[in-house]
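re: that chain from earlier
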Amino acid sequence: MIRILVVDDSAVVREIFTNELSRDPDLEVVGTAIDPYIARDKIVKLKPDVLTLDVEMPRMDGITFLRKLMRYYPIPVIIVSSLTPKGGEMALEAMNAGAVEVMCKPGASYTVGDMSVELIDKIKAAAAVNMRRWMSSKSDAEKQAPRLSTIRTTNKVVAIGASTGGTQALQKVLSILPANAPGTVVVQHMPEHFTSSFAQRLNELCAMEVKEAENGDSVIPGKVLIAPGNKHMLLRRSGARYYVEVKGGPLVCRQRPSVEVLFNSVARTAGSNAVGVIMTGMGADGADGMLQMKQDGAATIAQDESSCVVFGMPKEAIQRGGVDSVVHLDRIPETILKCAQQSSA
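^ sequence. v structure.
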C-alpha cells in the first residue's frame, strides 16, 4: 500500500482526493491537513510515502513549506495547482524547489474523472522515485555544464519523451546542445499552462530557441518545440519542410500529450532521418513508438537506470528491443549529435 497525505486548505479538494484515491486498492489516504503546520505534525506521526500539496494556503505557502521539507524530511511531493498561467509559473517554481510531479485541480475544463486517472498514476510514479537520486539530479541540473560545440547543420529531427524526473533531465540535455542543433520535438508529461512556463524557463537557459508548440510550427535546426499540456503533438511533412500538428484526442497510454503518439508520427514521417530519445519516467508511454522508430531506420537512445529518477519508460523501450544505445544522462547530448552527424553523412 502507498500511504498518502493530502495537504490542501479546500475541504472540497480534500474530500474529492480522499474519495477518488480510496478507489484504488494500492493506495491509502492516511490523513489530510489544511495547512503546512498541521501537515508537518502529521508527516512525523503518520510517515506517508507521498504528499499531495497545494501551493496557495494560509499561514505558510506550499513552496516555502516544500523547501523546508526537502531540507529536513525529503519525501516525494506532488504539487496540485490551479489551471491558470499563474498556476503554471508557481508549479514550475515548486518543481525547482523539489516537487517530483505537478498536476491540476479539477475544474470547468478538467473533470474529476480526468484528475483521478492522472493523480493515481502520478502517485504511483512518485512512490517509485529514489529521493536521493532525485535531489542529486536536481542539484546537477542547476550546475552550468559546458555547452557542446557548434556542429554541421542537419535537417535531422530529434524526438524526446520524458515523464517523472524529466523536467530536470530535459533542462540538463537541452542546455548543453549548441544553437544549431537539429530541430527537436519534446513530449514531457505536464498539464496545460505548465508546459508554457516550462518552455519559457528552458528558453532562458538554452542556446536553442525553446517554445511551447503551436499548430503548424516548423521543425528546424536551432529550435525546440514542447508539446502543450492536454494536447497531442505529431510530426508532419510538406515537401522538404517538417512541422508539427497539435490536436486533442483521447488519452494514449493514459497520457495527453503522449510520447507514443509523437514517436509513431516521427517514425512514419521522418523514418531514418530521425533520432529518438526516451528518458526518465513511469510506465510504458513511448516504448512501442520507439521500437517503430528503430524499425523505420531511426537512431534510438535510452537513458540508463543509474541516472533515471524512475527507470520505467526507458526500461520498457529496452525490453521491447527498440533501443540502439543506453547511455547516462550526461552523455545523451553528445550521443544525439553523434547520431545526427553520422546519419547526415
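The mean pLDDT is 91.
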